[in-house]
Amino acid sequence: MKKITIAIDGFSSTGKSTLAKQLANHLEYVYVDTGAMYRAVALLAMQNGYINAESFDTQTLINSLPNIKLQFKFNPDLGFAEMYLNDVNVETEIRTIEVSSFVSKVAEVSEVRTKLVEQQKEMGKDKAIVMDGRDIGTVVFPDAELKIFMTASASTRAQRRYDELVKKGDAVTFDEVLANVEERDYIDTHRKDSPLVMAEDAIEIDNSHLNREEQFDVVLQLVNEITKTI
Ligand code: DC
C-alpha cells in the first residue's frame, strides 16, 4: 500500500495523540507528537528559571536553543516513542499541569517554532508518518495527503484531561484544568506565528460524541480511500 503523510491538528485534549497512535500502530507508520517537543522546551525553560508565573526571559531561551537536543526513542513496552530532552527521558515530566501552564507561551516564540518545525519536516521526509500538533497541516506538511482537524467542546476536553491527571495522582481540580484548556485554546488560536487554524483541505472531526473506536474507523476509512486513489 502506498505510504502517505497524515497530519492531525486540533485543540488540546481532543484525543489527537490517541488517534495518531492507533493509526500509526495499525499502518506501521512512525508517530510524532509535536506537542511533546514544545513541552520539552517549556520544561527546560522552567528548570533553568527562564519562565515562571511572573516572568519569561524569552531571549535567554532563544540563546539556549542551539544546545537543546530533542529526540524520540521508541519504547517497545509502551508501543510508542518517548520524549528525550538532552538525553534524559522526560516523558512523565512534560505532562504535568505546570508544564501545561507554560507551554503555550513557549510555543509562541518564533525561534522555538522554527527550530522544531525544521526537525519535524526532516522526520517526515520519507512519508509513512502520523504527526499531531497545531500547525502540521498548515505549516509542517502543507502537502500531506490526509489532514484531520479534531474538535470537541472545552468541557468535554477538560473532563478527559482531568480524568487522566487524577489517574496519575495529580492533585488538580476540574475548574483548574478547564481554565488551563481555555487559556491554551485562546493563546494557540491568537498567537502571531502559526496560530491554530484548520487547513482549507482538512477534514473536521468533532469527537464530543464519538468513542475512540468509532473515531478510528472514520479516519481509517479515509486513509483507505486516499491510498486507493494515489
Ligand atoms: O498537544 P499538546 O497539548 O501536548 O501541546 C502542548 C502545547 O504546545 C499547546 O499549548 C500548543 C503547543 N503546540 C504548538 O504550538 N504547535 C504544535 N505543533 C504542537 C503543540
UniProtKB/TrEMBL annotation:
Residues holding ATP: 10-18
Keyword Kinase: yes
Catalytic activity, reaction form: dCMP + ATP = dCDP + ADP; CMP + ATP = CDP + ADP
Positions of the Cytidylate kinase domain: 6-224
Pfam family name, one: Cytidylate_kin
InterPro entries: Cytidylate_kin, Cytidylate_kinase_dom, P-loop_NTPase
GO terms classed as biological process: nucleobase-containing small molecule interconversion; pyrimidine nucleotide metabolic process
EC numbers on record: 2.7.4.25
GO cellular component terms, A-Z: cytosol
Signal peptide stretch: none
GO molecular function, one term: dCMP kinase activity
Cell compartment(s), UniProt: Cytoplasm
Keywords assigned: ATP-binding, Cytoplasm, Kinase, Nucleotide-binding, Transferase
PANTHER family: CYTIDYLATE KINASE (PTHR21299:SF2), CYTIDYLATE KINASE/PANTOATE-BETA-ALANINE LIGASE (PTHR21299)
Family from the record: Belongs to the cytidylate kinase family. Type 1 subfamily.
Name of the featured protein: Cytidylate kinase
Provenance organism: Flavobacterium glaciei
Name of encoding gene: cmk
